[in-house]
Automatic annotation (TrEMBL):
One of its GO terms (cellular component) is perinuclear region of cytoplasm. Its main location: membrane. Residues 20-451 form the Major facilitator superfamily (MFS) profile domain. This is Solute carrier family 2, facilitated glucose transporter member 4. It comes from Hippocampus comes. It catalyses: D-glucose(out) = D-glucose(in). SUPFAM superfamilies: MFS general substrate transporter. GO terms for biological process: D-glucose import; dehydroascorbic acid transport. The chain crosses the membrane at residues 69-90, 102-120, 267-289, 301-322, 334-353, 359-385, 397-421, 427-445. PROSITE patterns: MFS, SUGAR_TRANSPORT_1.
Length: 494
């Protein structure tokens, strides 16, 4: 059971609560699934693109066109994610969390259907469009959007990890073969249907009802259902207190965020940390590992891909424990450093492969290490730090900017990796090693420890506290406590 569940005010876990968490994290499962699903069947689907091309134009597809089409199929997912991560705050405030999730499910349904039917319809455009739409779904459902429960981060992270086991299904013997890959792509509609079926039985987020809609009565009823208690006055009082504090702090727009000297430095840090997550090269592995290994001549590359998925799964759980016990900054540096070493080892192993066949095992192990260290640091930590660097006023804007940088970098890797890999061969990971080293140095010199600190203490690290700033820091100090009382919260998206 994810650690976060126990935090619910020491309450027992009711059926309704368990159901709500389960329903909500199905979205994260989809996120992990759709990141990894295109990895193993790359070659087979590329052959299908080629066949379609031959059917339409009577000639084989030019190699360059094929690379572009496949890169686009992989990367357009991030464009969808970016677009929807901008709309999500607005939509969920307008419709409520539950209806927003229902609507979002229609996207997943459309995306899955488009991808699943693309082969029958002989249209790679459908697959590409489907990836865009499913990306839009994941932008809302994926990273930090569990509207229901505290502990959502742990539950979400675990579900996302589980989704990364997708490459197992991508085995040629299972669904990754010539005939069945459309099912592999379309399978993403199953969790969607399940989520749609379960949502009506989940209560609307009480925090949303109270803080956004001011419906105290309905919020109370939701709290009762989720906790199984009749007396929920204490929880309501906490939300009241939080609302009071939120009302005290003005919302900050994105433009203001960049103009204000108070926010500039935390903003730069947040953006760079998001970049450190994506430019670490993790998605080069999740999207392309099968192809990297095939080209390098490793035997049974699909097993390396599956292994990476399984390691990822296991280490999301390990990271849940670490995050509660160690400092953010330490973990991030540990992760970056470990990934950097693994990238170098992998490069060496791949370049010695011709002379020393045993190197294929070393290269696999280094990929597993790379993924494991990712889940220790650059995977979870950047989101924690953004949330902890900003108080409630500027936090939504900061989160939007951070999300946008994240998706953009994700797109760049998905789109550009194959071209760079063609140029550099196995040495491509030295580029990531260099980037990782840069981010490690940056974190060492610039990123403050945020765990368990008040905004006051954090901003004392940024050496520009004027008298004005000191006043704001006091406000922030007040606000800090309220985020800890966030029982049903998605403070990140309002
Ligand atoms: C496309 O298919 C044809 C045979 O139909 C083959 O000769 C050609 O090598 C293939 N091209 C690519 C890029 O796979």
């Amino acid at each position: 059971m994810p650690a976060g569940f126990q935090q619910l005010g020491g309450e027992t876990v009711t059926g309704t609560l368990a159901l709500s968490v389960f329903t909500a994290v199905l979205g994260s499962l989809e996120f992990g699934y759709n990141i990894g699903v295109i990895n193993a069947p790359q070659k087979i689907i590329e052959e299908n693109y080629n066949a379609t091309w031959v059917h339409r134009y009577g000639q084989a597809i030019p190699a360059g066109t094929l690379t572009s089409l496949w890169s686009l199929s992989v990367a357009i997912f991030s464009i969808g994610g970016m677009l929807s991560s901008f709309c999500v705050g607005f939509v969920s405030e307008w419709l409520g969390r539950r209806k927003a999730m229902l609507i979002n499910n229609l996207l997943a349904f459309m995306g899955g259907t488009l991808m699943g039917l693309s082969k029958v319809c002989r249209s790679f455009e459908m697959l590409i469009l489907g990836r865009l739409v499913i990306g839009a779904y994941c932008g809302e459902a994926g990273i930090r959007l569990d509207p229901y429960v505290r502990g959502r981060d742990s539950a979400n992270q675990s579900a996302r990890g589980a989704g990364h086991a997708a490459p197992i299904l991508g085995l040629e013997q299972l669904l990754g073969g010539e005939e069945l890959w459309p099912i592999l792509m379309g399978l993403t509609v199953l969790p969607t249907v399940l989520q749609m079926a379960l949502l009506p039985f989940c209560p609307e987020s009480p925090r949303f009802l109270y803080i956004v809609r001011c419906q105290e009565h309905h919020a109370k009823r939701g709290l009762r259902r989720l906790t199984g208690r009749q007396e929920v006055g204490d929880l309501l009082a906490e939300m009241k207190e939080e609302k009071r504090r939120m009302d005290m702090e003005r919302k900050v727009s994105i433009a203001e965020l960049f103009r204000s000297p108070l926010h500039r430095q935390p903003m730069v840090i947040s953006i760079l940390l998001q970049l450190s997550q994506q430019l670490s090269g993790i998605n080069a592995i999740f999207y392309y590992s099968t192809s990297i290994f095939t080209k390098a001549g490793v035997q049974s590359p699909v097993y390396a891909t599956i292994g990476a998925g399984v390691v990822n799964c296991a280490f999301t759980v390990v990271s849940l424990f670490l995050v509660e016990r160690m400092g953010r900054r330490t973990l991030h540096m540990l992760g970056l450093g470990g990934m950097c070493v693994c990238a170098v080892v992998m490069t060496i192993a791949l370049s010695l492969l011709d002379t020393v066949p045993a190197m294929s095992y070393v290269s696999m192990l280094s990929i597993f290490g790379f993924v494991a260290f990712f889940e220790v640091g650059p995977g979870p930590i950047p989101w924690f730090i953004v949330a902890e660097l900003f108080s409630q006023g500027p936090r939504p804007a900061a989160m939007a900017v951070a999300g946008c940088s994240n998706w953009t970098a994700n797109f760049i890797i998905g789109m550009g990796f194959q071209y760079v890999a063609e140029l550099c061969g196995p040495y491509v990971f030295l580029i990531f090693a260099a980037l990782l080293l840069f981010f490690l140095v940056f974190t060492f010199f610039r990123v403050p420890e945020t765990r368990g600190k008040t905004f006051d203490q954090i901003s004392a690290n940024f050496h520009h506290a004027s008298a004005d700033d000191a006043m704001m820091d006091m406000d922030m100090e007040l606000n800090k406590t309220s985020t800890e009382l966030d029982y049903f919260g998605d403070e990140s998206i309002n």
